[in-house]
TrEMBL record:
Biased composition (Basic and acidic residues): 288-298, 326-343, 350-370
Signal peptide start and end residues: 1-31
Protein name: Putative membrane protein
Region (Disordered): 269-298, 311-388
Domain named PilZ: residues: 108-213
Molecular function GO labels: cyclic-di-GMP binding
Amino acid sequence: MVKTPMNALKKLLTRLTTRLMLLFLLVTVPAAPSCGDKSTTWELVQSFGETMSHQEARGRFYLLLFFVTVIILATAGLTWSFIKNNLSRGEELELETNPDGQELNGNQKRAWLRLAFKKDLLFKIKDDGEFNRGQITNLSGGGMQFSTGRELTPNEQIRVSFALGPDKKFNLDGRVVRVMPSSDGQGEKCFLTGIQFLHLTSAEQDRIVNSVLQEQRKLMLGKRTKKEKTCPVCGRPNLNKAEKCWYCQAPLEEQSESRQKSLLPEEELLDQSGGASSFVNSTMDGNPRSEGDNTPEWLRRVRELIAAEKVEEEPSDEWQQQHLFDTPEKGIKRNSSRSDKDSGLSSSMPEKKDKATKPIDEKPHIKQPEAEEDLPDGFTHFSTHPDD
C-alpha cells in the first residue's frame, strides 16, 4: 500500500480517538464493590457515593475536553482536505527563463515604437558649432530618422534640437547609424540620416513615447472619421457620399489631395457662414465679372454655364401683371342674335356715380330720382315707387 500524507493522517486520528475513548471510560466508570459484612458494605456504599460525586465533577471536565479535541481534529481534517483538493485541481506552472540569460525590460520594446511624421529640427556635429536644418521623417523612443542636405558619416556623434509641442522641447545627443542618399519633392538631393539617442533618461524617453502615441492615436482617429467633400465651385462642405453639391448642384469629385482646387478665385469663394461672393452677386445682377487674360478656357465656360443657370432660375412675373389687364378667355358669351344696339348699349352704359349724402329729414326708403338720360329704344327708367 502506498503511503500518502492523507493515509498517515487517518491512522493518527484513529489512534487518538481510541485512546481518548478508553481514557474517558476509565475515568467516568466507578470501581465495582466487593462482597463482605454489613459494616464493610456500609463503608463501601459510602465510599461509592463519594466516588460517584467526585467522578461526576471530573467527568464533566473530561467530557468537555473530549468534545473540544474532536472539534479541533475535525476542523484540521476538513482544512487539510480542502487545501489538498484545491491544489490538485490546478496545473503546476513552470517559470520560463530567457535562454540568453538577459532580463527583458520595457525600454527595449518601447525603443522600436516608430511613427512617421514631419517636424523641423536643428542639428550640429559636436566638433562643429554651426547648426544645420533638417526635417524629421520618423521618430521613436530610441532614435529618429531625418532628411538633410548635409551628408554625415556613420558613428559620428551629433546633437539634435527639436520640439514636439509647446512644452515638449528636446536637446539630445545621438550617434549616426546609417546614411542613405535620397531626393526631396523638388528634385534636390538630400540624405536620410538615422541616429540612435545617447544618454537618454527615462523621463525624456517617456515624453517622446507619449508624444508618438498621441500622434498615432490622432492618425487612427482621422482614418476612422469620414471626410467631407468640398464643392469645387462654391467651396462649401458636403457629405462624403454626396455626388452633387447641396447648395449649387455642381458635381463633386473625389479629393485626391488634402485641399481641392476651386473653380473660383480664392477671394471670391463663399465663406462658411453662407455669404455670397462678388462673382455670384454679379451673376445675379446680370453683370458678369470681367476676367483676366490668364483665365483658362474650361474655367470660363464653367462660369458661363453657372451664370446661365442662375438667369434661368430667376422668376418672371411680368406675364402675371399683364394678365390682370387682359380680357379673360372665358368671358361672358353673347348671343349671335343680339343686335348692334345691344353692343352699343353695353358701351354706352354710364359709370356708377358715388352716392350722395342723404339729408337728415328724408325718409330712408325713398330713393332720390337720378337725372334723366337718353336711353336706347325699348328701355325705360326704373320706377322709384314700389306701387307703380
